[in-house]
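In response to a reviewer's request, we include the raw inputs and outputs for one of the modeled complexes. The three entities were modeled together in a single run.
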Amino acid sequence: MEANITTNKLSARFSDSIIETHSHRGDETLVVRKQDIQDICQFLRDDTELLYNFMMDLTAVDYLGQEPRFEVVYHLYSLAFNRRIRIKTRVSESDCSVDSIVSLWPSANWFEREVYDLYGITFKGHPELRRILLYEDFQGHPLRKDYPIKKRQPLIGPNC
Amino acid sequence: MVADLIESIVKILFIFGVNIGFFSPILGWVERKQSALMQDRVGANRADIFGYTLIGLFHPIADAIKVLTKEDFIPDGADRLIHTLAPFISLTPAIVAFAVIPFGGQYELFGHRVNLIIADLDVGLLFVFAFASLASFGAVLAGWSSNNNWSFLGGLRASAQMLSYEVVMGLNIIGVIMVYGTLRLSEIGAMQVNFFDWGIFLQPVGFVLFFTCAIAENKRAPFDVAEAESELVAGYFTEYSGLKFVMFWMGEFLEIVTIGGLVTTMFFGAWHLPFVSDQMLLNFFRFAGPNGAAILAILVNIITFFTKVIFFIWLQMTIRWTLPRFRYDQVMRLGWKMFLPIALINIFITGLVILVK
Amino acid sequence: MSDTAKDLHSEYMVINMGPSHPVTHGTVKFLLTLEGETIIDMKVDIGYLHRGFEKMCENGTWEQVIPYTDRLNYVSPLINNVGYALAVEKLIGIEAPQRCQYIRVIASELARISDHYTNVAASGLELGAFTAFLYFVEARELIWDLIEMLCGARVTANYVRIGGLKNDLPDGFKTKSRDVFKRCRELWADVDKLLTKNRIFIDRVRNVGVMPPEDAIAWGFTGPCLRACGIPYDVRKFHPYLVYDQMDFEVPVGETGDNFDRYLVRMEEINQSMRIVEQALDKMPTGPVNVDMPEYRWQSKDDISNRIESMIFHFKTVTEGIKPPAGEIYSAVEGANGELGFYLVSDGSGKPYKCRVRPPCFPLTAAMPKMVRGSFIADIIPTFDMINMIGGECDR
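The model returned the following structure tokens for the whole complex.
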């Protein structure tokens, strides 16, 4: 089946690093080991039968109470074959970092900054990892599930 | 002697009244209304006195009251003296330049020879140019003294643009001077009695270039890079408020009038109606006696002249509301690489034609 | 370099463009390093309009997200509504009735037209063509009249529901839309005359903000900006959703990927969107607009009053929210700016566990420094206008 080409090729190439796969509602999903994310992305982008040239979306989900706690989610799209794939990698709270893919797709730059800003996950090798949507003095990472919705931030500015 | 003095005072009051009292407030209204017409809008119609809005004509009054009651703001770190001086430097040349523009011919009135021009200088055109170049100081000093980066960039742009376009404008004028052989604007006007001696027929290229350069010199769209509101906030007058801001504004409007006057004088027969000389007017009004005829002729002259001026004001406004803005380097390229060579070729061809004749 | 040049004291000018500057509509800050008029470097700071969209969504029910989506891209809110509703429907595994799908297509295309009007008009305005701006604002008013007729609001539409619509198409919509489109086409022709062949306008936008196709892909461009590079990627064609596969329309593409191509692509898309709306109105089938699944979509008022199941489910969905089965999906629609994706995670409860929006203008804004570096400060204006950054969507 054509939709499974990606999964098959990846399984053949990175058999050790794929933790699980599913295709809920037709969305191909692969959960991969954290340390291989850069290689896998490079393979997906450059392999002539895959050519996932768009890095459409990059985000994270906080599964509070699970271990590892976070999932970083990559949505890739192949223009040549009109295929989408979702790559996920799990990040634990104790080692809250993952390799940056900015070197592969410049578009990942701001998406990774956003994930860092809102979830506190650091990206190793990112050229300029600082907050993007929030201000520098913001305390905490608001999209973590343990960030209280009514939390007040300290006032900042020259008159405080 | 006394008659001369009275004549001068009347003329100065007349031109001053027309410019400051009529044109500068009314042009604000005209600009609003004309842009509204062009853009399918209603335009200014809110200010009213006892419920009468008079198609928005009260807006200049409301503006004046608003402006006079505004805080006169000088930013921190600005050069207070120059900051205050700049709008005056910008406004004065616009008012003064009109002194050498004739708005009528010469008539015998009560045994006194009346020349319908405030100062009939033999270097009239040079005088206009001298003052036009002074006006650029206003923009530059305003931009520099405001202690604001945007103002500064605007001032830089203004100085570069005005200097370059003055060169081209000056070269355009040379064609006109060669044709009429004088710098005195009243003589240039007087020479255009014959309809086919109008500058537009003798110097068509010169007219187009001069008009374009004059708009550029006045920094109005499409040449308003110095105050390009989307790039430089408001350019060199970003930090001005109240009356000082309005002085820049008035300066711009008065320059529109001056440009209209200059174009009319040099290219569109000055105060002459087509095919009608001053003598024909006097003969036509013979029934009113010599003095009455002169007065009526003067009136016809003035009305003709200002009708033409108003037409060119309208033309400038239409251009301003139709075209988008140039980029700074494109303005420069247009000035130096397009207009300057064309102006030089124009001089050359004019010279050849004069030589052959 | 001569000694004089070395001795001459000169330094770069560092200047803040924004967050409150006429060109940075949508509130964004450009930190410019200038050498004269030339941009040496640029840093973009966004986030001034950040409202915590995702956090808000995670703390409301699935239905309560819809008004929030109005505020994402606030010049084309209906597309956001449709995109979100489609995503949740995909998560549940249901499909809206045919008539609903046609009306959603009409809604999306009206929103796209109004967005492109705003965008083209605003870029004209900022380049000094005020008249073109007001012509398109008039056209946009007419489109908004149609949207108002459709859903009662002009901007914050809140029209599409999960599994249906707030209401059916009103009477006389077809007649009214024909009149509106007639006038809109006249205005389109006026603006076309004022801008498309205007030498000054072309000079300002031609070869400015150029993005080669391969760079555009790498930077995550989608929508009109990507199509301007010559890549015909349009979600409506590549992953047809709703009834777009039954519509006859073309996807305009550019050649060079500069601002002029972006402008032309948008101008042509206005025409194509009008075509789609007209076709959808002609082909519109009759039937219900809401799915008959009381656990996901409220039944009619009459049913709720008279049928016990409807009443129970109405009570349950209002108090607890609808409960899509656990799972995760990514669903994309063609937003006005590009691919508008929703990544939803459900844990089976009444609240979204995660509601991520893939904002199309976010990667476009990120590429601003690349597009303007080395050009003039005045080139920021057309480039920034043509990427059509919408603060509500970019900052969420």
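As requested, we also summarize the result in words. Chain B has 13 helices and two strands. The interface with chain C takes residues 35, 38-41, 149-150, 153, 221-222, 224-225, 228-231, 233, 321-330 of chain B (CB under 8 Å).
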